[in-house]
Design goal:
Elements: E1 29-33, H1 38-49, E2 53-58, H2 61-77, E3 87-91, H3 97-111, E4 116-119, H4 134-158, E5 164-168, H5 181-201, E6 207-213, H6 222-226, H7 228-237, H8 247-257, E7 268-271
Parallel strand pairs: 1-2, 1-4, 2-3, 4-5, 5-6, 6-7
Helix pairs in contact: 1-2, 1-8, 3-4, 4-5
The protein binds nicotinamide-adenine-dinucleotide.
Length: 278
């Protein structure tokens, strides 16, 4: 992997594209949830640029369709190592198990196989612990935890040996964030669920790992950029003193899906500038 150096600064993020080549990727097929924007869209783009066909699912079906169209158009103009994969967008609500199965069927109908599944969709609600309503905790656990479980169940039905699942956990799985009690709980559950899935799906030769990002600059964390006190706190408490970019989570995702990680399962990789230690 190579990347051009760029100085870190006040709230700066590094968007410089990185190059990582995985010869085993072209022709493989992935499902990525929450792919309309943010990290899911960036993961989709990075996989397709390496020859992987991607079915991207998002609850925002209109934005998902637009993102798929934009990614296909952009990939067609780029000088890539590989013939790019095709991106297909679909509406999905990850809280509905049958909608995951529909994503899997779409991938099989369009591309004839399924190799990777990325459980990326998530929500990040704010409520102090003494104010969390039953609706908020249920919605958070439903999207962030059941969404991962149902995705993994669909993947387990269709992935063969060598298949790989990556779940999005968070540094919040191990570090408390004020006002994010429901979210932290859900991401701790994702980290542990990843381990349970790895143990049981190992019987099928399927690997299951998680990524635990820190502050990554997306719509989900736009409030950090827009609140000077929150940005100062973030920069003070991240040992690398800057936010991360979606681009910087791509490398760990590709590694975990690739044959380079074929003996890695049940693991959470922190991509947090070191913030889990502070
Ligand atoms: N951004 C960060 O700093 C950060 C840090 C740690 C973990 N994460 C996790 O990474 C993942 C991606 O985060 P992001 O920053 O790109 O977020 P984002 O808000 O930019 O994107 C999340 C996507 O998920 C979709 N989504 C939400 N609910 C859904 C549902 N029920 N069904 C299908 N799609 C749904 C949204 O429409 C959106 O497109 C999330 O799981 C998030 O919790 C993010």
């Amino acid at each position: 992997m190579t990347s051009a150096a760029e100085p870190a600064g006040e709230g700066r993020v590094l968007h410089t594209p990185m190059t990582a080549v995985y010869p085993e990727f072209p022709g493989k097929v992935a499902v990525v949830t929450g792919a309309a924007r943010g990290m899911g869209a960036r993961f989709t783009s990075a996989l397709a640029a390496r020859g992987v066909h991607v079915v991207g699912g998002d609850i925002n079906a209109g934005q998902m369709s637009a993102t798929a169209g934009e990614l296909n158009a952009t990939l067609a103009t780029q000088a890539l190592h590989e013939q790019p994969g095709t991106v297909v967008g679909a509406g999905v609500d990850v809280t509905k198990a049958d909608e995951h199965e529909a994503l899997a069927q779409l991938a099989l109908e369009r591309f004839g196989r399924l190799d990777f599944w990325v459980n990326n969709a998530g929500i990040f609600p704010f409520a102090l612990v003494d104010e969390i309503t039953p609706e908020q905790i249920n919605a958070t656990l439903s999207v962030n935890v059941e969404g991962v479980l149902f995705g993994a169940q669909a993947a387990a039905r269709h992935l063969g040996p060598g298949g790989a699942i990556v779940n999005m956990s968070s540094v919040s799985a191990i570090r408390v964030r004020r006002g994010r009690g429901a979210y932290c709980t859900s991401k701790a559950a994702v980290a542990h669920l990843t381990e349970s899935l790895a143990v049981e799906l190992g019987d099928k030769g399927i690997r299951v790992n998680a990524i635990a990002p820190g502050y990554i600059d997306t719509e989900m964390t736009r409030w950090v950029r827009e609140d000077p006190a929150a940005l100062r706190h973030a920069l003070d408490t991240v040992p690398l003193h800057r936010l991360g970019s979606p681009e910087e989570v791509v490398g760990p995702l590709l590694f975990l899906l690739s044959d380079s990680a074929r003996y890695v399962t049940g693991h959470s990789i922190a991509v947090d500038g070191g913030s889990r230690h502070v």
